[in-house]
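Quarterly update, task 2.4: S-adenosylmethionine-bound model.
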Amino acid sequence: MTEKKLDTVRLQEMSRAFIESASLFAAIDLDLFTEINRGNNTVSQFAEAAGISQLNAERLMTMCATATLIHWKNGHYENADDVERFLVKGEKSYAGPWLSFLRPGWKNWGNLTEKLKNPDEPLVIGSYESMTVEEARKYHEGTSSIGFGAGRRFVKHVDLSDRSKMMDLGGGSGAYSIVAAQANKQLQAVVFDLPPVVEVTKDFIQKNQIEDRVSTQGGDFTRDEFPEGCDVALMASNLPQYNREIISLVVQKAFNALASGGEMHLIGEMLDDDRTGPTDAAIWGLLEVMSNSTGLTHTRADCVGYFDKAGFIKIEVNEFVPGILTRVSGFKP
Ligand SMILES: C[S@@+](CC[C@H](N)C(=O)[O-])C[C@H]1O[C@@H](n2cnc3c(N)ncnc32)[C@H](O)[C@@H]1O
């Protein structure tokens, strides 16, 4: 039997992966992908459009080409398909704010070791503890650039045509509620989020002219009462921000508040039960070190366990966005 030859290639690539992130951010800042879309697709044209030297334009474009963000074809560069769709400014599908969402933490990640040694007791609502309306506005500019697409996916996966009222726990921009109400004319939704956040939610509701069916309720879902009379409960994308005890408590509170026959959907970055991935789930759990919250990555089995313990039946684990988000659902008898 031949022994597998080991080398350092994989480890070298990992140790330099931050350079790829830095290049992506610089390319977004300098509108590289937008300029390529406009036809400024050679080194000299991009250098002029971005106001940088040809030398630096070539360096950045070479890096982006080897990272497969752009391709060299017939004497000019073209955007990769996903870049063309999500990173050209001015397009409805532009996801720049979401793709830059973790960028403010850039310096902190360089100090991860020190952060891991922090001896302080974790804070229950972590980074949200002191969020102002202005910070929430910036934050949800990012979440909404991906949230409305996720909301459209949710209404394709889940039939809400017989439902009357949904509570959207930690609903943020209200993206899921707004899209669900637009797609189901009989449905009311209440976006439940922290008081400074719902000020921002109100703007999204108003912009989508759906004030008659989507409302807000300011509160902390770890402590306050949930909206009444709901037959659907949704909690999307705040799973790794809390520990197992708190998520279990929130699922129990949702179960207690739901009408009999109602359903709950927990959408989040969940780890496969064999703990081999996805990496995204591990990243969001590790991120919680930065705000010293109680948060960590939950497995699919953990989430099924919260539903089971609360009393839900017909519990299912569904792929939502493969490799990123999983949806666990259950019904109240
Ligand atoms: C990443 S955002 C997700 C927003 C939305 N569900 C979506 O998927 O687009 C997480 C949201 O949970 C809210 N949140 C976190 N902890 C909360 C708490 N204890 N009570 C109420 N809302 C909370 C945050 O304010 C934020 O709006």
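Highlight for this quarter: The CA atoms of residues 164 and 187 lie 5 Å apart.
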